[in-house]
Automatic annotation (TrEMBL):
Belongs to the TRAFAC class TrmE-Era-EngA-EngB-Septin-like GTPase superfamily. EngB GTPase family. InterPro entries: G_ENGB_dom (IPR030393), GTP-bd (IPR006073), GTP-bd_ribosome_bio_YsxC (IPR019987), P-loop_NTPase (IPR027417), Small_GTP-bd (IPR005225). PANTHER family: ENGB-TYPE G DOMAIN-CONTAINING PROTEIN, MSS1/TRME-RELATED GTP-BINDING PROTEIN. Keywords: Cell cycle, Cell division, GTP-binding, Magnesium, Metal-binding, Nucleotide-binding, Septation. Residues 22-199 form the EngB-type G domain. It comes from Sphingomonas echinoides. Coiled coil: none annotated. The keyword Metal-binding applies. The keyword Metal-binding applies. This is Probable GTP-binding protein EngB. PROSITE patterns: G_ENGB. Its cofactor is Mg(2+). It comes from the Bacteria.
Length: 199
C-alpha cells in the first residue's frame, strides 16, 4: 500500500473541518522537533509529503493524507506540542481540538506517539498519553532519531519507555525503534500501520 498513491487531502484547523470518516485512520503525535515530518516522509517514501515546520502558527492543524487508490486508509499528522514559547491559549486550543478528535473519531484505529531517543518520555508526552488512555484510543510509542545515541543508551531509553507503556491501559506493550536517517525500523513501522488499519 505504501508503494501506491499517497496524497495530501486536507488540513483541519478545527474539528468542523475534518474530512468524512470513511476509512480507517492512524494518527501521528509528538513534540515539535521529535522528527514527525521526517518519519512520515520515511514511512511513505516521499521526500516532502509532510512539511517540516517548527513555526508555532502552523501547529494547530490536523493534516490528512490519503493512502491507496482506491482509498484504503488515512494517515493523520497531529499538531506538534511542547513548544517552550507557546502561549497558554494556544496550548488550551490544542488540548480541546485533540481531545475532541480523539474522543469523536471512531475510524481512528491507532495513534503512534513519537518519543525522541535523546529525551525519552517527558511530562508533555504524558499529557497526550493520558488523553489517549482516557479516550480509549489504542496507541503505540515510537522512538525516533535512534541514530543519535549510543546502542547502550538506546537500549536503556527503549526499556524505560516499555516499562511505562506496560503501566498504561491503552498503550501497546512493544516499542518501535526508528531512525528516518538510517531507515532503522521503517519496515516495522509500515507493518504496524498496516496491521492497525486492517485488524
Ligand atoms: P517535526 O517537527 O517533529 O516534524 O520534526 P522534523 O521531522 O522536522 O525533524 C526535526 C529535526 O530533526 C530536523 O532537523 C531533522 O533533520 C532531524 N531529524 C529527524 N529525524 C531524524 C533522525 O532519524 N535522525 C537524525 N539524526 N535526525 C533526524
Amino acid at each position: 500500500l505504501f508503494a501506491g498513491p499517497i496524497a495530501f487531502l486536507k488540513s483541519a484547523p478545527t474539528i468542523e473541518f475534518l474530512p468524512d470518516a470513511v476509512v480507517p485512520e492512524v494518527a501521528f503525535a509528538g513534540r515539535s522537533n521529535v522528527g514527525k515530518s521526517s518519519l512520515l516522509n520515511a514511512l511513505t517514501g516521499r521526500n516532502s509529503l509532510a512539511r517540516t515546520s517548527n513555526t508555532p502558527g502552523r501547529t494547530q492543524e490536523l493534516n490528512f493524507f490519503d493512502v491507496g487508490n482506491p482509498l484504503a486508509f488515512r494517515l493523520v499528522d497531529m499538531p506538534g506540542y511542547g513548544f517552550a514559547k507557546a502561549p497558554k491559549d494556544m496550548v488550551k486550543k490544542w488540548r480541546f481540538m485533540v481531545n475532541d478528535f480523539l474522543r469523536g473519531r471512531d475510524v481512528l484505529k491507532r495513534a503512534l506517539v513519537l518519543i525522541d531517543a535523546r529525551h525519552g518520555i517527558k511530562d508533555v508526552d504524558r499529557d497526550i498519553l493520558e488523553m489517549l488512555d482516557k479516550a480509549a484510543v489504542s496507541y503505540r510509542m515510537v522512538i525516533t532519531k535512534a541514530d543519535k545515541i549510543k546502542a547502550s543508551e538506546l537500549a536503556e531509553v527503549t526499556q524505560a519507555t516499555a516499562d511505562e507503556a506496560r503501566k498504561r491501559p491503552a498503550a501497546h506493550p512493544e516499542i518501535l525503534v526508528t531512525s528516518s536517517e538510517t531507515g532503522l525500523g521503517i519496515p516495522e513501522l509500515r507493518a504496524a500501520v498496516i496491521e492497525a488499519v486492517t485488524s
